[in-house]
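Quick one: UPF0102 protein Ga0061069_11313 from Thiomonas bhubaneswarensis, structure tokens please.
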Amino acid sequence: MGQWWKRRQARRLGQSAEAQACAELQARGWQVIERNYRVRGGEIDLIMRDGDGTLVFVEVRARSHAAYGGAVGSVDATKRRRIVLAARHYLARLPEEPVCRFDVVTLQAGEMDWLPGAFAAEE
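--- reply ---
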């Protein structure tokens, strides 16, 4: 298998994980605001509003196994900075800044785990 095949499979895994996470959060009553919000230097997988009105920036990570820290370990300091950069860009467009937080949803070996408030913008 070539590198292109591995990248293709990883992209499919990521897209499937995002769809599963989005469906799970919508089942909890959350509203989708944006999907795959991109700016130069950062991206947010899902921007959603939870049941109490909080704006939630959701990072979705999928791994087939736990090697190298697994799905949670892949949200390192660099990844968090990129998510925060994109979130600040998104918030700058709004007339006033709402209450917001950063969640991480991981899918690893078929198990979904939701980590509300996984990190803060100030980290």
